[in-house]
Amino acid sequence: MDVQDIKNRFGIIGGSPLLNRAIDIARQVAPTDMSVLITGESGSGKEVFSHIIHQMSTRKHGAFIAVNCGAIPEGTIDSELFGHEKGSFTGAHEARKGYFEVANGGTIFLDEVAELPLGTQARLLRILESGEYLRVGSSKVQKTDVRIIAATNVDVYNRVKSGKFREDLYYRLNTVPLRIPALHERKEDIFLLFRKFSADFSDKYRSPGIHLEPDAIQMLSNYSWPGNVRQLKNIAEQICVLEKDRNVTAGALLNYIPNEGGSNLPMALNNGSNKEDFSERDILYKVLFDMKKDMMDLKKLVAEIIQSGGNTSHIMEENPHYINQLYQEVDQTVSNDSTFMIKKSPQNAPVDYNYTHDAEEVEESLSLIDKESDLIKKALKKHKGKRKFAAQELGISERTLYRKIKELNLN
Ligand SMILES: Nc1ncnc2c1ncn2[C@@H]1O[C@H](COP(=O)(O)OP(=O)(O)O)[C@@H](O)[C@H]1O
Ligand SMILES: [Mg+2]
Fold first, then answer.
1. Contact at 8 Å (CB) between 133 and 82?
2. Rounded to whole angstroms, how far apart are CA atoms 201 and 197?
């Protein structure tokens, strides 16, 4: 089987050299009985690789047991792994087989291996060296034939240096190191993964397909992805379920990708040239200004409604079109934006407070409008008055641009 066959068989997406290399190492080490230490950030695919190695080994018909060493309390981990005799500790009413006995002839995947207590590490080392172990509460030596694949998202060698991990065990486990690259090291795979996941979720939820606009693809590719493929998969699912507009722009994506902090955002979009960097920043600011303006409109409306004692009929009469549009927009925002959901529920604030707040904000909005018309003028100038390209650059539709030009009297 070559690397591509393995990808097809195990549903591995991506074509970056680092990923291909990891698959190639897994392919070569699988048929041997060597221990493998898989390193990589959380969500990068370590468990997937442990399956690949087991399935492509001569043990594929044997058991595969995955143990999360970080999730088992220190007091019971030895008994879980190696079993115990009846009466070996309070509560041990029956003898129990450990995973190493059950997995005889198969593979054990020790996830978060750096979390193993030192005592357990000593027992594990003995198994690795001789296949021998003792059940808890027994002095009878047992034998087992288990292949060990371990995984960690921390630097185990640091644990060795601080005396928390046995050096001999470290070298024994690390016979073949296998490093799974983080998503930010294989940016070229991000869009491929998103496309696959969103297609799968669209199938699953019977919803229309998701199309990413170029600015959204760029934002996706430049995000840092601390949760790697798992996080990307979650976000693809959220977008599939929640997003009403199936043409997803960078602005819409901001609702799903956590903000990496104000100054990070424009930098995250940096693609080399300073000039382009600047225009992209403008687009992002524009998205934010638009959002803020919407907020302000909303606040004004709420203030008006409160002032009129909750009676909305006069507002409806004066401006039916605007209200309809607002309903649609609000509807969409509420279902898409989790922060909005949280803010929806607080108790009614005193009316007075809302008023002073509102007054401050209205003044600020004037400068936002200025800023907006500045950006539009700049974009039009850059594209020599060609509205189509200016709109693209601004990240809005041509129709919206026409409306804004009219509204802001830019003709
Ligand atoms: N290259 C890949 N292609 C497709 N799906 C992947 C890939 N790598 C990881 N996944 C998926 O991402 C999720 C997290 O992977 P997992 O192996 O559990 O990560 P880890 O063990 O490193 O935390 C799983 O749903 C897995 O199927
Ligand atoms: Mg995992």
1. yes
2. 6
Output the residue whose Cα is nearest ligand 1's atom 2: 12
- 85's CB contacts (< 8 A; 6+ apart) are 92, 95, 135, 136, 137, 138
pLDDT (0 to 100) of residue 50: 98
pTM of this prediction?
0.66
41 CB near ligand 1 (under 6 Å): no
Q: Is the CB of 178 under 6 A from ligand 1?
A: no
Question: Quick count: other Cβ atoms within 10 Å of Cβ 36?
Answer: 25
**Residue spans of the chain under pLDDT 50:** 261-278, 336-365
Q: Which domains does the chain have, with CATH numbers?
A: 3-181 (3.40.50.300), 184-253 (1.10.8.60), 271-344+358-411 (no CATH)
Tell me what pLDDT residue 162 has.
Answer: 96
- Provide CB contacts within 8 A for 409, sequence distance 6+: none
| Ligand 1 atom 16, closest CA | 45
Kindly identify the ligand whose nearest atom is closest to the C-alpha of 40. 1
Report d(CA 256, CA 339) in Å as an integer: 11
| Ligand nearest the Cα atom of residue 47 | 1
DSSP codes, 243-292: -SSSEE-HHHHTTTSPP--TTHHHHHT--S-HHHHHHHHHHHHHHHHHHH
Q: What is the pLDDT of residues 291-341, one digit of tens each?
A: 766 777 777 778 777 777 777 776 666 666 666 666 666 555 555 443 333
pLDDT in the model for residue 40: 97
In the prediction, which pLDDT does 345 show? 30
- CA 153 to chain CA mean position, Å: 16
**Cβ pair 63, 107 in contact under 8 A:** yes
Residue 143 near residue 100 (C-beta atoms within 8 A): no
